[in-house]
Amino acid sequence: EAKSAGRNTQRFFDPQMQAIVNARANLESDLRQAIHDGELQVYYQPVMNGSGSLVGAEALVRWRHPARGLVMPIEFIDLAEQTGLIVDLGNFVMRTACEQLALWAASPSTQALTMSVNVSPRQFHNQGFVDEVLGIVAQTGANPARLKLELTENLLLGDVNETVNRMRQLKERGVGFSLDDFGVGYSSLSYLKRLPLDQLKIDRSFVSDVLSDVSDAVIVRTILALAHSLELEVVAEGVENSEQVDFLVSNGCKRFQGFHFGRPVPIGEFERLHGFASFRPA
Ligand code: C2E
Ligand code: MG
Ligand code: MG
Ligand code: MG
Q1: Cβ-contact 86, 29 below 8 angstroms
Q2: Which ligand 1 atom minimizes the distance to the CA of 264?
Q3: pLDDT at 277 over 90
Q4: DSSP label at 262?
Q5: Phi and psi for 67 in degrees, rounded to 5?
Q6: What pTM value is reported for the model?
């Protein structure tokens, strides 16, 4: 048919592509609305020491969607990063986590706990980042020495001098830095010397097969030895059983995170599981 053929030539996308584009656009406007409407929630996962005591928590964002239920970060962090929504999202998580840290500081049993917050590349490189973090720390009364910002290696694809400068500005105020998912990114080992880091987190993928895969065992041992010679603290991520703990302990690891010790949970559950409660003025 001549008429419909003419119309068809104006169709640039095939229907599947169009569906993907529409779904993304919907997710983006949903997420924008979610940040505004308070649908984001912060979960906390415990970080333990070798004696099995709680030493801190990692803040992990969740999206409590009215229709879809609990949405995990894998479904929306990349989109937030691509659209710039990560700045507002990140500030929300930072503020919530710092408020919690300030509450913990008020009680002797929790005042030594640290709080780790994930920071994505676009958030870190955003113009106002340093001032925003310092502003949140000041407003919430959180102790910056108990705050750890988790960066990933892909952050280093940007200007490294600029990255080091920003890190230094925050470090001068006491804020700590951790390199997350270590071992799976792009960075060369020379960055470990250049960046003012305090901690490395061994990526979960190495820890999960450490008992069955000889190369993963070698990699984990090597990371532990390297980090210790650079005087960096190491956290093993994704620890799921006591055999993994034994392997890690015998190779000098002193910090652990994973389902074996506790899953990420809302603050009330976190505090109940660990036997304390924040004092919240009525
Ligand atoms: P991550 O920072 O490496 O966080 C650890 C992830 O591993 C979390 O997934 C946690 O639930 C999961 N995990 C911890 N222990 C275990 C374990 O023993 N077994 C298994 N299978 N998984 C474990 P989650 O919460 O889904 O977060 C995924 C990623 O999303 C995070 O990886 C982080 O890169 C990103 N993310 C989460 N919250 C934020 C945020 O507030 N800001 C930014 N920029 N990124 C975030
Ligand atoms: Mg992390
Ligand atoms: Mg990680
Ligand atoms: Mg990650």
Answers
A1: no
A2: 11
A3: no
A4: -
A5: -100, -40
A6: 0.93
CA 16 to ligand 2 centroid distance, Å: 34
168: which 2 tokens? 């230094």
Residues facing 215 on adjacent strands: none
**What is the chain's length?**
282
- How do 233-236 and 199-202 pair as beta strands? parallel
Q: What is the dihedral of CA 124, 46, 208, 242, to 10 degrees?
A: 160
159 torsion bin: left (phi>0), alpha (psi -120 to 50), beta (else): beta
Query: Residue 165 carries which side chain, given as an amino acid letter?
Result: N
Q: Ligand 1 centroid vs 60 CA: distance in angstroms?
A: 6
Residue 202, strand partner residues: 182, 236
Q: Compute φ and ψ for 106, nearest 5 degrees.
A: -80, -10
Residue 139 near residue 153 (C-beta atoms within 8 A): no
Indicate which atom in ligand 1 lies nearest the CA of residue 119. 44
Q: Are 207 and 237 in contact (CB under 8 A)?
A: yes
The pair of three-digit structure tokens given for residue 217, joined into one six-digit string: 């065992």
| Predicted-complex ipTM score | 0.98
Distance linking the first and last C-alpha atoms of the chain? 73
Joined tokens for residue 129: 């980042």
Question: What is the C-alpha separation between 227 and 170, in angstroms, rounded?
Answer: 22
- Summary mean pLDDT of the chain: 92
Q: Check if the beta carbon of residue 143 is closer than 8 Å to that of residue 134.
A: no
